[in-house]
Specification:
The protein is built from 11 helices and 12 strands. By secondary structure, the protein is of the alpha/beta class. It has 2 domains: about 30-55, no CATH class; about 60-285, 2-enoyl-CoA Hydratase, Chain A, domain 1 (Alpha-Beta Complex), CATH 3.90.226. Helix 4 (about 140-155) packs parallel to helix 5 and helix 10 packs antiparallel against helix 11. The structure holds zinc ion.
């Protein structure tokens, strides 16, 4: 018998029946402290490592479940897909194929999910990015969906919350992806003009064109602990400035120290902090409290609702004066 026809013997080992039955993915290694974590516990802990508090990257739908009241989410602007107008390819790798593959992987159409939901009863408009879809990169669809979400806020007057998680602009869409930075920023400018609150939540990682546009334009910028947040990668910076970078560079804690983010909030506190911030910002809530007499004080800010309403009006007129003389593009052109 020729060795070519020899039947496969396989690897000798323990017979199957005596092996302990451990289903795949029961344990997960923490990428920060290398601790082996029980997956079920991790899920219960909102995907936060119990040893080092590292916040694991989670998909958009999981993140929405952390933030919103159960069953309050209504997805909007589905059905937008990239057309690959540049017919982009690197060698044999076509962008269109990559997109199709990413879509097949899950339920996502692109790297962001937009919609409307409620946080402790307070309605909000949200956009949550997802790193699982092409590294959360911002192409024309991501930009457009975020822009449409901001327009929803402009039309309804509801606060905007954007959760960022991205490697930056999508290089396969070249200039079209870079244009999304200007488009989203211009619309956020309109939101600001009308004093509609925008809360930006930065998760691990938020880099490149996303950091350089909407992610850093929040009225409040919240970061998750130990998240990598920056524009260019540390290696590129080190090579450019030819100097050793300080410890913890581009992490949330470093950015908080240097005034780039307002607050670091762990996932378990996020809903509470958002709720308090929304109460502080929204006039409706203040007025409602005043009407039903349920609260004379809003949150722990020390401001009475009527005082707050007056302050907001003042702020709107101040912003109007400040922006007199130049105008932002119309909704249609953005
Ligand atoms: Zn850990």
């Amino acid at each position: 018998m020729s060795w070519l026809n020899r039947a496969k013997r396989g690897v000798k080992g323990k017979p199957k029946a005596t092996r302990p039955e451990i289903p795949d993915g029961l344990w997960t290694k923490c990428p920060s402290c290398s601790e082996i974590l029980f997956r079920q516990e991790l899920e219960k802990n909102l995907w936060v490592c119990s040893h080092c508090q590292f916040h694991f990257r989670v998909g958009a739908n999981t993140y929405l479940s952390f933030l919103l009241d159960p069953d309050s989410f209504h997805e909007t602007h589905r059905g937008l897909t990239s057309e690959d107008p540049l017919n982009f390819k690197v060698g044999k790798d076509r962008y269109a194929d990559k997109l199709a593959k990413a879509r097949k992987k899950g339920t996502l159409e692109d790297a962001v999910v937009t919609g409307r939901g409620e946080i402790e009863g307070a309605p909000v408009i949200l956009a949550v990015m997802d790193f699982n879809f092409m590294g959360g990169s911002m192409g024309s669809v991501v930009g457009e969906k975020i822009a449409r979400g901001i327009r929803d806020s402009l039309e309804s007057g509801l606060p905007q919350i954007i959760v960022s998680q991205s490697g930056g602009a999508r290089m396969q869409e070249s200039i079209l992806s870079l244009m999304q930075m200007a488009k989203t920023s211009a619309l956020l400018g309109k939101l600001r003009e009308r004093a509609i609150p925008f809360i930006s939540i930065l998760t691990h990682p938020t880099t490149g064109g996303v950091t350089a546009s909407f992610a850093m334009l929040g009225d409040i910028i919240i970061a998750e602990p130990k998240a990598l947040i920056g524009f260019a990668g540390p290696r590129v910076i080190q090579q450019t400035i030819q100097a050793e970078l300080p410890e913890g560079f581009q992490r949330s804690e470093f950015l908080l120290e240097h005034g780039m983010v307002d607050r670091i909030v762990s996932r378990s506190d996020l809903r509470h902090v958002l709720c308090k911030s929304l109460r502080f910002f929204t006039k409706d809530e203040a007025e409602q409290n005043l009407e039903d007499g349920s609260a004379e004080i809003v949150g722990d800010t020390g401001a009475s609702p009527s005082l707050f309403a007056a302050r907001r009006e003042e702020e709107v007129s101040r912003r109007r004066d400040a922006t007199a003389g130049y105008s932002l593009p119309d909704d249609d052109s953005a």
